[in-house]
């Protein structure tokens, strides 16, 4: 009887463990799909906030980034970021990384690879928006390939791969610095090196608005990004643990909402009392980026503070970059991702008693400096041998025609003429 009971309990335990692993793996696959959707969000947001004559170019770059991001992460990135993960030059787990025993059985090797690959591609997508409307397409493609293949995974190993910053105690739950800060720093360098778009600044130095072509599309893109963040942060729990996942999603949404509302009101002060929709939308994204580093260790109440401050910071950053530093960022990517990524990482050291502010400061400083330096070297090398900016004539007619020979929005009247 005892033997039967012991055997039954053992089998039951195995069944429970298998079911738990299946649920966690399923959640990780759903999270992967949600992060994938974020790339559609980025494409919609960027094309909506830029001029119609460059929409096809924006869409092409975003499609290229997700395709090349997956391929480079498969060939080299995963192994660089997680040494010993078992992925070889041609891919696939080796005998030391059986898929079903991976991550203590919580989810499979293959699911982890695909989830992490989505993050890798995001870093280059961030750069795409900041350099929009004046970068040569081949130059961007080459930069994105090198940056995603080598820079992002090498830097990611410092924390998520168990490297020196992980040993130091640096904390970044889902990538306020590792993804958004790194991508934002590269975006800053790219926008600075390219210079402003034609007509952006007057000879006296004042800033001219170059309105986006499709604000409803930008709204769709922003909301798709918010939806995708359920997977971006929620999937970073790396299991379907009900309590932790629920808390992460709550802090994520509270911070996003607080950032949006704060930016709505703050924008009125720099637009003669009229709220700026694009600022409000970027306020939501700022709140999302801000909470990403500490979504699992910051309380719901504190997440409201994190998001609110991110909403203030993003407006101030956009104005400073545009009017003071004369850095032309068509979509506000630098402010959302780099500035608010830094804030979110530092917020962990402020609102979580388990983490040091000084270590957080040291970690995010190391990441931003290294990512900016690497981006400069890559852009400078490309510029020396090929050039990174299109000609003035190509910029005037639009990159859709100049780079692709097609347009995103068909105008029958223009065609008949």
Describe the structure.
It is a single chain. The chain has 417 residues and is mainly alpha-helical. It has a single domain, classed as Ammonium transporter fold (Orthogonal Bundle). The chain is 71% helix and 0% strand. The longest helix has 48 residues, at 2-49. The chain starts with a helix and ends with a helix.
How much of the sequence lies in strands comes to: under 5%
Succession of helices and strands: HHHHHHHHHHHHHHH
Q: From the helix content, strand content and strand pairing, which structural class follows?
A: mainly alpha
Count of individual domains: 1
**Number of strand elements:** 0
Helix content class: over 70%
User: Mind telling me which CATH architecture this is?
Assistant: Orthogonal Bundle
Shape field: globular
**Number of separate helices:** 15
CATH C-level: Mainly Alpha
Please compute the radius of gyration using only Cα atoms. Answer: 22 Å
Whole-Å distance between the termini? 91 Å
User: What is the mean pLDDT?
Assistant: 91
Largest sheet: none
- CATH superfamily membership, which one? Ammonium transporter AmtB like domains
Low-confidence stretches: none
CATH topology: Ammonium transporter fold
